[in-house]
Write a structure and sequence with these properties.
Blueprint (H helix, E strand, L loop, with lengths): L7 H33 L3 H4 L14 H8 L3 H38 L2
């Protein structure tokens, strides 16, 4: 049984194939985020055109103003921060108390 010999030409080809495959994977993974960002600055009538326009004809930030000032989304965001902060504080304090009681019980077992 002989070991496979990898020539420098094959190694370079392997690097090129891996590089191209990685680039394709990165583009596929980042495309939805780019589409979302581009769609956020389009007007509503541009969103529903067929075939879709890749770049907005008239970019606008009015959609962001609508979300921030005419909807309840900022309040929903604040509610999420309050709930997540409270649950984190509760979990941290209960873990601290449990550690304190566990260490006292362990110390009491060593010195009765």
């Amino acid at each position: 049984m002989s070991a496979a010999v990898i020539t420098p030409g094959r190694r370079t080809l392997a690097y090129v194939v891996i590089g191209v495959a990685s680039l394709v994977l990165v583009v596929v993974c980042l495309f939805p985020f780019a589409w979302m960002a581009l769609s956020s600055i389009k007007k509503v009538n541009e969103l529903y055109t067929v075939p879709p326009h890749w770049l907005p004809n008239e970019p606008t930030l009015l959609n962001y103003a609508t979300v921030l000032f005419k909807s309840n989304i900022p309040r929903y965001f604040l509610n999420s921060i309050i709930i997540s902060g409270g649950s984190t504080a509760l979990a941290g304090s209960s873990t601290t108390l449990a550690l304190k009681f566990a260490s006292r019980a362990f110390v009491c077992r060593l010195w009765p």
